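G., the chain you wanted modeled:
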Amino acid sequence: MAELLRKRGAILEIYIVKVGDTIDSIAEMFGIPVWKLAEDNQISYPFPLAVGQALLILYDTETIGNYPLVVGGYAYPFIHPFVLEETLLYLSKILVFSYGFTLEGDLVFPQIEDTALVNTGVSFGVTPILTLTPLDENGKFNNYYVSVLVNDSEVSERLLSQLLTVMREKGYGGMDIDFEYILPEDRVPFAQFVEKTRMFMNENGYSVSVALAPKIAADQPGLLYEGMDYRLLGSAADSVLLMTYEWGYTYGPPMAVAPLPNVRRVVEYAVTEIPREKIALGIPNYGYDWPLPFEKGVTAAKTIGNKEAVDIAITYGAQIFYDETAQAPYFHYQDEYGVTHEVWFEDVRSMQAKFNLIKEFNLMGCGYWQIMRLFRANWLLLHHEFEIM
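Predicted structure as tokens:
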């Protein structure tokens, strides 16, 4: 009998690959064509599988969910056209990463021209969103840039004027403010800047969202959190994105990128400070590969895509496991140099858990960081769970 994690009549199921399974035997088991099973799960010829791999078994590609959801995805202007077009089918808005600014308030354009990305989004009926970040010349988030901007009205007004011009010329439909490591003393000025930006942009027909570090309490210590006031920012912006990822990160110890208990705690706090109809849940579209043993300050994980993670497991004959607490897949393998690795990533099971959380808390939407790698099974699952607005 098939090992099923989920079933909705004759619409969709999730199957976990067992020893001895082949794509032909699985396709026959569910009565679907091999080509469809392979295409939906991005399995290339000769169709290798990993034990423990989660496969989306999709029968009816036309059926969609009845929960309305706003879906956003961050992308750099150099996204591959094929990946972009495949993903735009499932988005409400595409957030172009990113525009910056100087200490004088002059807008800094992306290094790669973004016009093609904006135009493609518009052609698919997806709203392009200009993302503003305080990145310095080294490409790092710089809270000094934030401090100057939010405390100097001339600088902010100069920047807002230039932003409006560019948004009009290029066809943007709104903007997203993605600032991190805001100084504690800039907590109120930052919220006031967001409100000023929202009022200015709303008057000109544009929406404004703000990305929020994943807090679980108003007084949570740490530079990532102290300058972020959920209540003030939730009031100041049209909508917010909870950056509920990066618990597992490049320089940290091996663990899930978005462990569900951690994500849940952020959402539980957020809904006490911000109206649910303004909140989008952040979703990671990536994983990490850590060489072991982990040594703090020395070990650095490699960022990988979710399909790439499965390919690694297949290459090294690793079995994929699923952490029921974190609600995330993981595995270990030994490379050709004898180094042991630990990999955490996302699959349709972990995505299903996040989608369930969105419904449980009746959130407005979700936002993916980022859509540079195609994860087709995720989008097909999303399509069946929600009505994308």
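The domain at 67-289+345-388 is CATH 3.20.20.80 (TIM Barrel).

Shout if anything looks off.
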